[in-house]
Amino acid sequence: MHLTFTCHPPGMLAAMTAYRCPQDGTLAETTALTWCCPVCRGPWDLDFEITGTLSPGSLAGRVNSLWRYEEVLPLAAPATTLGEGRTPLVPLTGTVSAKLDFLMPTLSFKDRGAVMLAELARRLNPDRVVADSSGNAGTAVAAYCARAGLPCTVYVPEGTSPGKTEQIRAHGARLETVPGAARPRRWPPGPPRTPRAPSTPRTSSTRTSCTAPRPTCTSCGRTSAGACRTPSPYPSATGRSSSARPSPPPNSSPRA
Ligand SMILES: [Zn+2]
Question: Can you tell me the distance from the alpha carbon of 83 to that of 11, in angstroms, rounded to the nearest whole number?
């Protein structure tokens, strides 16, 4: 996802020190409106120092969002939130747990970054926020810009899921469709990858049995190795609201 601010800056940015290009070390102020490195055109990294300390004991009673950890985030004293974060962490095996970020306000982990971007944009007071996305990130940016009171345009490739484009529009963003398909970004650019050799078809004798727990359908409660056909009790994207979030499964604990 790329995010562009079209505005005349100002504003104070707590804790953030600079944008840094991971390829050539180019630096820019965090109030700069350049969305990429002017030397190599690659994306910025955020270079910031953690100015505070955080102990688990200090979290009790704090706001129920990502901002409860503000001492270790790039921005402090935020004004933008949709109650993101603190999704359940469900143990699957002794060493593997699943973080259920589909319970986030716009149903994906993209809300974690979008809340930071929208809060920064709110401080920069742009004329418009422009993002490109193949779906989830655009939905998150649209929702958080709406929360921050910022006009937003999201560019998506043609073929983007109608559910996602409907979500983006529902959050009040202007949607622009561009020709082409979404492709995974590869950075830094490098030589063409060598195609993989054809794999040997698996037979019953080469299969290994999986001992991980099978997923449980949140609609019917059955455990299944495949997709459950039970209709979802939740409204379609057209009628979805941020309050219609599924309940977390039992035996799970809220975490960051
Ligand atoms: Zn660069």
Answer: 24
94 and 21 share one domain: yes
Condensed to tens digits (0 to 9), the pLDDT of residues 228-253 reads 444 433 333 333 333 344 444 455 55
Please tell me the pTM assigned to this model: 0.66
Q: How many A from CA of 68 to the centre of ligand 1?
A: 33
Query: Which residue, of 38, 70, 100, is where some domain finishes?
Result: 100
pLDDT digits (tens, 9 = 90+) for 197-228: 655 554 443 343 444 454 454 554 554 444 34
DSSP classification of residue 36: B
User: Where a domain ends, among 127, 156, 178?
Assistant: 178
What is the CA(131)–ligand 1 centre distance, in A?
20
Supply the pLDDT for residue 189.
Answer: 59
Q: DSSP for 165-186, please give it.
A: HHHHHHTT-EEEEESS------
Split into its structural domains, the chain has a count of 2
* Residue 11 pLDDT level (bands cut at 50, 70, 90): very low
- The DSSP secondary-structure symbol of 14 reads S
Distance 22 CA to ligand 1 centre (A): 7
CA of 37 to the centre of ligand 1 (A): 5
